[in-house]
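A common beginner's mistake is to predict each chain separately and then try to dock the pieces by hand. The better habit, illustrated here, is to supply every component at once so that their relative placement is modeled jointly.
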Amino acid sequence: MGELQQSNQLIIMGLSLNTYVLGLWLQAALTFAILSFLIGDNPVYKFAEHLFVGISAGYGVVIVWKQAALPLLIFKLLPQLGPTPGEAANYWVLIPGLLGLLMLARFIPRYDWLSRYPIAFTVGLFSGASIPAAVQTQLLEQAQATMKPVLGLGGIHWGLALSSLIVLLGVICTLTYFYFSKPHEGTLGVTSKIGIWFLMVAFGAGFGNTVMARLSLLIGRVEFLLYEWMPVISVHFNNHMQ
Amino acid sequence: MTTLLQRLESIDRRWIYLVILAAVVIPFLMNLKLPVGKHSPSTTAVHDYIEQLPPGSVIQMSFDYSPASMPELEPMAKAVVRHAFEKGHRILAMTLHPQGALMIRRALDEMALEMNKEYGVDYVDAGFKPGGVAVILGMGKDIVRVFEDMDARGNKLSAMPMMRDVADYSDIALMMDFAANSLPLAWVAYAHEQYGLQMGVGLTAVMATDLYPYWKSEQFVGLINGLKGAAEYEDLVEVPGLGILGMSSQSIAHLLIILFIVLGNVGYIVTGRASQRRT
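With all components supplied together, the output reads:
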C-alpha cells in the first residue's frame, strides 16, 4: 500500500516528477478545493469549478473532432488523409456534413433560420424511430406487467397474489389521481387519495436512493484520499526521513 | 425541550456536514466491517444469468458513465467483468459516452491482467462511438461496420479471433449496460425490443428507482443498484472490493441521516404545537 506505481517521469526545468504522484496530488487538491464550498463560496472552489467546466468542454471538443468529425466526415471525403488511403471517397457524407454546418447558423442572428432544416430532420428522424419504441417499451410492456395473475395454475401463492393486487391497486389509484376532468370527490376522491399515498412511497424510495447515491460519491472520494493519496504522503515522508 | 429543538432547527448546516463526514471517515479508520446483508433479488438475477451462460459466451458491456459516477459504477463493473472472466466468457466492451473510453480501460484492463486474459481472444475494446440510437440500431445489423472495423487501440476488429464469432446481436448472449443516465432506456427500446437482446443493467442509485419497473416487467434480466448492488455482487463472486469496503460508512451515514430526519420532524411538530398554543 505504500509503494509508488510505475509511471512516466516528467522532466520540467531539470526537475524530475513522477506523473502518477503528480496526478494523485492534483486529484487530492481539487477534491479539497471542491469540498471547500461546504464552508462557504470561495475563490479556490471557483477556480476548481471553472477548471472542471473548461476541461470537460475541451475534452468534449477533442472527442467530437477525433471520433466523429475526422473519421465520419473528413477521412470519408479525403481518404488519402486517413488510415485507409486506397479507399474511394464517399461524397454522400456531404449531406449530413452540410446539415451539421447549418446547425451552426444558430450563432448568426441573420441566418439562424437555416438551422431549422437540420433540426426538422433530426426531430423527424428520431420521432419516427423513438415513438413506436417508447410506446412499446414504456407503455405496452409496462401495462402488460401489471396484468399478473392473482391465482396461479398450481394454486395460490399468497405472496405473489398480494404483490399482484398491490401493483394493480397502486397503478389504478395513481392514475386516478392524475385524472383532472372531474373533481376528486366520492369514489374518485378516495382512490386518488390512495394514489397520493403510493406516490409518496415512490418519492420516498427515490429520495432514499438519491441519498445513497450522493453518499456513495463521498465514500468514493474518501476511499481515494485514504487508500491512494495518503499512502503516497507516507512514502514521501519515509523517503525524506531516510 | 422546545428550546433545544428550536436550536437544533436553526443549527448551522456546516456542523451537519462535519458529522456526516465523520460518519463516513471513521469506519474506514476503525476498519469497521459490517455485513453486506441479504442480496437483493435484482442483483442476484444478473449473477445467476451470467452463471448459467455456457462458457465462451460473448457478453457485451457498455460502460456509459463518466468519472463523476465512477465511485458507484466502477466497483460493480469490475465485479461483473471478474465474474464473466471466471466463467470463461468473452467480453465485447464499448461505450456511447465520450468519457466512457477511459472507464473501459480502468475496469477491464486491470481485471484482464490479473486473470491472464488475452486481448483479441478473450476481450475486445471497441471504444467510444458517437451516435447513440444510431449505433444501437446499427449493431443489430453489423457490429464491425458500426465501429468502422477499428477498435479503441487502433487494431482491425475483423482481424481479431473473438470478433470472427460476433457479427450482430444474435451472437451476443447478454448485454450489460453500466450507466448513470437514461441510455439503458434506449438500449432496451431498440436492442432488446427490436432484436431480442437480453439485457442487464448496473445503475447509479438515482436512476435505479425509475428503472426497477423494467426489471419487474422482465425487460431486464437483472439490475445492480448503486454501491450497495456493487457490494452484493462482490459478495456473490467472493472477492471484496471498493463496494464492500464502503458499506460500513454507508450504513452508519444512513442511520445518522434517519436520526436527523426523525429529529427534524419531531422538532417541527413540537415547535408547531407550541406556537399554536401561544396563539
